Automatic annotation (TrEMBL), chain A:
One CC-aspect GO term: plasma membrane
PANTHER family attached to this UniProt entry: INNER MEMBRANE ABC TRANSPORTER PERMEASE PROTEIN YCJP, MALTOSE TRANSPORT SYSTEM PERMEASE-RELATED
Name the record gives this protein: Mannitol ABC transporter permease
Occurrences of domain ABC transmembrane type-1 (ranges): 68-258
Localization of this protein: Cell membrane
Residues spanning the membrane: 12-30, 67-93, 105-127, 139-159, 180-203, 236-257
Organism: Skermanella aerolata
Keywords annotated in UniProt: Cell membrane, Membrane, Transmembrane, Transmembrane helix, Transport
Family, as annotated: Belongs to the binding-protein-dependent transport system permease family.
TrEMBL record, chain B:
PANTHER family named in the record: BLR7065 PROTEIN, INTEGRAL MEMBRANE SUGAR TRANSPORT PROTEIN
Membrane topology: Multi-pass membrane protein
GO BP terms in the entry: transmembrane transport
Family statement: Belongs to the binding-protein-dependent transport system permease family.
Protein name: Sugar ABC transporter permease
Species lineage: Bacteria, Pseudomonadati, Pseudomonadota, Alphaproteobacteria, Rhodospirillales
Predominant place of localization: membrane
Membrane spanning residue stretches: 26-50, 83-108, 120-137, 171-192, 213-238, 244-265, 277-299
SUPFAM superfamilies given in the database record: MetI-like
Highest taxon of source: Bacteria
Domain ABC transmembrane type-1: 83-294
Automatic annotation (TrEMBL), chain C:
Family of the protein in this entry: Belongs to the bacterial solute-binding protein 1 family.
Name of the protein in question: Maltose ABC transporter substrate-binding protein
Range of residues in the leader sequence: 1-24
Principal subcellular localization: periplasm
Source organism, top-level taxon: Bacteria
GO cellular component: periplasmic space
Gene3D superfamilies listed in its UniProt record: Periplasmic binding protein-like II
Subcellular location: Periplasm
Length: 272, 304, 440
């Protein structure tokens, strides 16, 4: 009797908390289907006839697909590159630690703590000289570098959990380093690599500083798409909500589908 | 100490002893380290160079300024305000997300109908772009006239709060915390779920109530996970920018100007490349100090 | 191994696919602000592409702040990412002086450059040569709700004083029904709250700098103006005024939440259009309010299209700019979007067009406001700078933005007014000294 009461309590609390946290997103979703006048009416309209006019307006003004494709290509390729570079580094650090391993890891992480705007002009000049302003290549390079420290660190924690004996045994059979990595280590650490990749993709997708400043038209991802809707003239809440929904929907769905996988990586070895 | 900082898995990750075989690790680590070095050093060198130059984008005569830019910045009262704001923002969000994350994690560890779906809802903010979440909060929720919060307070007969004017820093902290609570929740929940059921059962047998259970069994178990949350969040929170840019533009006055935003003002509102570079150098120094302390504390915790 | 090579190949292919574009046509990258008139331009530009099949237009539409940073960074570093830029009266002379943008000489006779209103043309010139063509131009004026003023038993003069504005605001203010006496810009920024505050200071007899570039912010004129500004917004303004810029106020006024609003003339087209405004039938107009110095009470700004020196497609770019600022374009907007939406403020012919005058009863107010704005002889006491609501020097953006922040702090009560003026004064002095003023 007591336990069933507390069950109900937990149910209400759990769902209450979830809905409170989710509310802003839900409200944005709903607002995107209202007319502009309904969107700012007080008291807020909970029941209304949904309209697609904002979505039509958004699609008419901006080539959503071009922005979305840029976001996808840039996030995926930058993530793949970062993992390609990080796997050997993490392997060496995890299995052959030296005195400098810790220092190197920490130093890598500290590179992420500087506000990017401090180096914008130097980077802009570099990009200009290499002719990669407003190209996907340019953004891919930036994102690869930006996420490399976190990617190395995450992979490192996964590799550390792979029992060294397995690799040792492989070595006895004459496996060379490359085979050791590709045939023994990677299959074992695959879940970890997957979750690292997921996090990296999410971080790339949501990055809004470099993408805005180093792209114009050809390479502009969804963060630039949002910047063109953020404060236009007149009533704009409904259109803004529609555009926002379009910008976050792909990554939200992707994140939801992969959340179980993602969690494993996020714990950074703190949970076994 | 070395490896444990990052993993905290000292016991479970045996060091591989390569008897009789020397392994050259350099070829493996070198590409990543080299790339990061270039990534670090080229912009850093350029930043250092520009920080010693008088260079305004709108007035493109580059001339040597010596320590002029640093002097100008250090004499500027807004620098100290912005450093303080940075610490307030990082500190508050850390406290809020860890506390809320822990409570939510305990809650979502309980079994209740639809828990899986509820959990999906609760982690959703983590996937939302900072620009978008700031826009939603500013326009749809916190707007004193048409926002939901304002409507709620009028419903109960209160004057709506003008968030970005009256409590600007609190408002920014709320938005940033909302984005990071899911992260804390995810990690802490996983940590709780890894807790031995037998251990819990044993404690319950000993007559531990839910509260003492939380303080004596669950919380100590979460130590490492909390450390990870703190460390990762610190890295991202030190450079919070989009939320401030969209909502308050650092104001009113300097109320929400953090270091990242101050440098942005120098670089892209004043186009003072020299001053922004000097600010960048100061930010690097500050980041390393914070990194040093955070990492030390966290490392000690992970060691235990 | 094979797998890996394959993957890498795929990768390179993907990257390359993004960078190699078909070069059969001339592609122009156009950077513009997400204001209503520009969005119409983007929409109608397909007409231009039809008429010029060898030119393809790529649009970069961004909000004003972001756009300004993007194009400034690009042009100052000669990044060369854009072929057409949308910039304002503030930037054009400075950028022209730096040699960053191309001169518009040899305009075709059909363009009829003398049809462009003189103050607007002069604002976009450097050494008497035109460096950008105006897309639309604006001054400031007073909007009010006829019904509310009438209900209060009062009338709005054609040119009110700030005292009259205050009295009206007090009468109209009805927060219980979410109608606020007056809406003004409070959002910090040199192009936001400072644009309005500068004109207010001007008409109270103040100014940014004197003849010798001495900063004049801690003067009694500033104090008098800002005191009234804060008084108006605090007592008769909407909550959240310190976050309201032009767009937010436009949204509120068109939603019927403001009794009065002093802002850009360009809003008239949108407020008078029943499709975008709930108050179209109750809208009244007056000149911008005045105080002791009636001159300089209204600002002057135009959004103009320019071609960067770094563009390699000068001919095509100029062709587009000429098209988008021509009489024919205004005609096209009038016919397709309705005359009330025609880009205002640029051409004499627009204000002689019967169709426009019929559709836009505010036209004469706008024309008068623009023609009376004088960027040179603005203030009561002589000044060294050119510009009504800004000072035409590169350093002004920084000073204006910082002052704007401080004024917002004074508005929200985070700072006392005296302290705010002192802070703004010393920050501006610091910046001017750093920049090497006073210059000879």
């Amino acid at each position: 009797m007591d336990s069933s009461k507390s069950k109900i309590g937990v149910f209400i609390l759990g769902w209450g908390a979830a809905l409170v946290i989710f509310f802003p997103i839900l409200w944005m979703l709903l607002t995107g289907f209202k007319t502009e006048v309904e969107a700012i009416s007080t008291p807020p309209k909970l029941f209304f006839t949904p309209t697609l006019e904002n979505y039509y307006a958004v699609f008419e003004r901006a080539d959503y697909m071009s922005f979305a494709i840029n976001s996808i290509v840039i996030s995926v390729v930058a993530t793949a590159l970062a993992i390609l570079i990080a796997v050997p580094a993490a392997y060496a650090m995890a299995f052959f630690p030296t005195k400098r391993t810790r220092g190197t890891l920490l130093w890598m992480l500290s590179t992420k703590m500087m506000p990017p705007v401090g180096v914008l002009v130097p980077m802009y000049l570099l990009f200009r000289d290499f002719g990669i302003l407003d190209t996907r290549t340019g953004l891919i390079i930036i994102y690869t570098l930006m996420n490399l420290p976190i990617v190395i660190w995450m992979l490192y924690t996964f590799f550390k959990e792979v029992p060294g004996e397995i690799l040792e045994a492989g070595r006895m059979d004459g496996a060379r380093a490359r085979q050791e990595v590709t045939e023994l280590l990677l299959p074992l650490a695959l879940p970890g690599i997957a979750s690292t990749a997921l996090l990296s993709i999410i971080l790339c997708w949501n990055e809004a500083f470099w993408s805005l400043n180093l792209s114009a038209h050809n390479a502009a991802p969804l963060t630039a798409f949002i910047a063109s809707f953020s404060s236009p003239e007149g009533l704009f809440w409904a259109k803004l909500s529609a555009a926002s929904t379009l910008a976050i929907a792909p990554i939200l769905v992707f994140g939801w589908m992969s959340q179980r996988q993602l969690v494993r990586g996020l714990t950074f070895g703190a949970v076994k | 100490m070395s490896a444990s900082i990052a993993t905290g898995a000292v016991k479970s990750a045996p060091t591989v002893r390569r008897s009789g075989q020397k392994v050259r690790t350099l070829p493996f680590v070198a590409p990543a380290v080299l790339i990061l070095l270039v990534w670090m050093i080229v912009p850093l060198a350029m930043t250092l160079y520009f920080s010693a130059m008088r260079y305004n984008l709108l007035n493109p005569v580059v001339e040597f300024a010596g320590i002029g830019n640093y002097q100008y910045l250090l004499e500027d009262p807004s620098l100290w305000t912005s450093m303080w704001n940075t610490l307030v923002l990082v500190g508050s969000v850390l406290v809020i997300t860890v506390v809320a994350g822990t409570l939510l994690a305990v809650l979502f560890d309980q079994d209740f109908p639809g828990r899986g779906v509820a959990r999906l809802f609760a982690i959703a903010p983590f996937f939302v772009m900072p620009t978008v979440s700031a826009l939603i909060w500013k326009n749809l929720l916190m707007h004193p006239i048409n926002g939901i919060f304002g409507w709620f307070s009028r419903l109960f007969g209160f004057q709506p709060v003008d968030w970005f004017a009256e409590y600007p820093m609190t408002a920014v902290i709320m938005i940033v915390s909302w984005q990071w609570i899911p992260f804390a929740l995810l990690i802490l929940l996983t940590a709780i779920q890894s807790l031995d059921n037998e251990q819990k059962e044993a404690a319950r047998m000993d007559g531990a109530g839910p509260i003492s259970m939380f303080f004596f069994i669950i919380l100590p178990h979460l130590g490492r996970a909390i450390s990870v949350v703190v460390m990762i969040e610190t890295i991202f929170l030190l450079t919070v920018f989009a939320e401030i840019f969209v909502t308050t533009s650092g104001g009113p006055g300097l109320a929400t100007t953090n270091l990242a935003f101050l440098i942005y003002v120098r670089a892209l509102l004043e186009y003072d490349v020299g001053g922004a570079s000097a600010g960048g150098v100061i930010a690097i120094i500050l980041a390393n100090i914070v990194a040093f302390f955070v990492v030390r504390t966290v490392a000690r915790n992970l060691e235990a | 191994m094979i797998k890996k090579t394959h993957f890498l190949g795929l990768l390179t292919a993907t990257i390359l696919a993004g960078t190699t574009a078909v070069q059969a046509q001339t592609r122009l990258t156009i950077a513009t602000v997400n204001n209503g008139d520009m969005i119409v331009m983007q929409k109608l530009s397909s007409k231009f592409e039809q008429a010029n099949p060898d030119i393809k237009l790529d649009w970069v539409v961004l909000e004003e702040n972001v756009l300004r940073q993007r194009v400034t960074t690009d042009i100052a570093t000669k990044g060369g990412q854009y072929d057409v830029l949308t910039i304002g009266t503030y930037e054009v002379p400075i950028w022209a002086m730096q040699g960053w943008i191309k001169k518009f000489d040899n305009l075709p006779a059909a363009y009829d450059v003398n049809d462009v209103l003189k103050p607007v043309r002069e604002g976009l010139s450097y050494n008497n040569e035109l460096y950008a063509l105006p897309f639309y131009a604006e001054s400031s004026m007073t909007y009010y709700r006829k019904d509310l003023v009438q209900k209060a038993g009062m009338t709005m003069p054609d040119q009110p004083t700030y005292q009259q504005i205050k009295d009206l605001a007090a009468k109209i203010h009805d927060p219980a029904n979410q109608v606020y006496g007056i809406c003004l810009r409070g959002k910090p920024g040199w192009g936001e709250n400072m644009a309005f505050i500068s004109t207010m200071v001007n008409t109270f007899g103040g100014q940014w700098f004197d003849q010798n570039w001495n900063t004049k912010i801690d003067s009694p004129e500033w104090k008098e103006a800002i005191t009234l500004y804060i008084d108006l917004l605090k007592n008769y303004g909407p909550p959240g005024a310190s976050s309201n810029g032009f767009n937010e106020n436009l949204a509120m006024f068109s939603n019927g939440q403001c009794g009065m609003w002093i802002d850009s003339t360009v809003a008239s087209g949108m407020l008078y259009n029943p499709a975008t405004s709930k108050v179209a039938d109750k809208l009244g107009f007056a000149q911008a309010p005045i105080a002791s110095w009636p001159k300089g009470s209204n600002w002057l700004w135009s959004w103009a299209l320019a071609v960067p020196e770094s563009s390699k497609k000068e001919d095509a770019a100029k062709k587009f700019v000429t098209w988008a600022t021509s009489k024919e374009y205004i005609q096209l907007v009038g016919e397709t979007e309705g005359w009330v939406s025609a880009p205002p403020g640029t051409r004499q012919s627009t204000y002689e067009n019967k169709q426009y005058l019929d559709a836009a009863p505010f036209a004469k107010f706008v024309e008068t406001a623009i023609e009376t704005a004088d960027p040179v002889n603005t203030t009561k006491n002589p000044k060294a700078y050119v510009g009504v609501q800004f000072a035409g020097i590169p350093e002004f953006q920084a000073i204006g933005t910082q002052t704007g922040q401080t004024m917002a702090a004074a508005l929200t009560g985070q700072m006392k007014l005296d302290q705010a003026l002192k802070t703004a004064q010393s920050a501006a002095e610091r910046a001017m000294k750093q920049a090497g003023y006073p210059k000879k």
